[in-house]
Every structure is written in C-alpha cells, then in structure tokens.
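Summary for the steering committee. One of the milestones for this cycle was to obtain a three-dimensional model of the protein with guanosine-5'-monophosphate bound, which we needed before selecting residues for the alanine scan. The sequence and ligand used are listed below.
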Amino acid sequence: MNIDDVSGDLSAVLLTEEQITARIAQLASEIDRDYNGLQPLLVGILSGAVMVMADLSRMMRIHCEMDWMAISSYGSGVASSGVVRILKDLNTSVVGRHILIVEDIVDTGLTLSYLIENLKSRNPASIEVCAGFRKPDRARKEVKVKYLGFDIPSDFVVGYGLDYAGRYRNLRGLGILNPAVYS
Ligand code: 5GP
C-alpha cells in the first residue's frame, strides 16, 4: 500500500519507503561488520517488527538466524505499562548466543527494557537492539538502541509494520495518523 492510497488518513508523511530502505541498508552493513563470524540470532518482536526484520535480514551479507517473540502489555489503554506478558516465546535456546532484538519502535522504552532483562536472565553471550524508529521525547526508561533507524516526533505513527486497529502495517512509508481517524 502506498502513501497515496491513504493520504487522507495521514496528517503528515514522515518518511518515504526510499528513505527507510536506505537507512536500513546502512544498519545492515554496520551489523555485518560488528557480527562478522558470530552468526547473530535476530529476535523479532511480533507483529510490528516484521517489516524491519524482512528488510534488514535480507540486506545483511553475513549468516544469521531469526526467531520471534509475541508479547502483550498488561493493563488497558494506550499507555505502555512496562510489564509484558509473553504470548509466544522463542523456539531457540539463547545460551551463549549473540542476540539482536529487532523492534519496530521504541516509545517509552518500558517494553524493551523488560524484554532485555528477561533475555539477559537466559545467559546469552550478548544482547543489542535494532529499532526502526524511536520517540526520544517519550522515553521513560533509558534503553540503549545500538542500531537505530530514525528518531521521530512523539505523534502516533503508522506504516512499515506499525498499525492502528490492525490496519496500515502494509503501508510502505511512515506517516502520522490523522487524529480524526481515531477520535
Ligand atoms: P513502549 O513500551 O516503548 O512504550 O512501547 C513500544 C510499543 O508500543 C511498540 O513496539 C509499538 O507496538 C507500540 N507503539 C508505540 N508508539 C507507537 C506508534 O506511534 N504507533 C504504533 N502503531 N504503535 C506504537
């Protein structure tokens, strides 16, 4: 789905597909360099990270493995509580592995900091994070994102894996959802 297909639903286009692809390619080369010979385990967080994972992993030139976790935030409403329930755990043991968590967006950082602690307790060799987007003004927990696509404003965004009510994940770029769509 292209920006033009839903332009009425967006109050602004933040990033085009081309801009995102170019940045993901840079991150893939950095990861290739840093993990040469280490065969990292890319851990994608469903469902938002599917697009980042698909593009990043295919642009990488080194061997890697992929596994997935599905999580849901405890509590109601839109605010992240930071306590997450694991709906689907990894299929792979991470003991002694170099884990690269692949996330769509870091908002408050609460979800990611919980996940990092959870995975650390399983004795991997290392853990780093790759995220497509981050909202620096919303940070409540400091999380080191070693491989970051873009810092973006605090607005609610959709596209490139990010949804609203299950829609817009297949939008090629990233846009700010017009508040009229959800109010
Ligand atoms: P955090 O725990 O960092 O506050 O929440 C991160 C999760 O909230 C992301 O993985 C994503 O699922 C969701 N999220 C945060 N900001 C946005 C946004 O602007 N748009 C969408 N669609 N999801 C978001």
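Key point for the committee: The helical segments are 17-34, 50-59, 110-120, 179-182.
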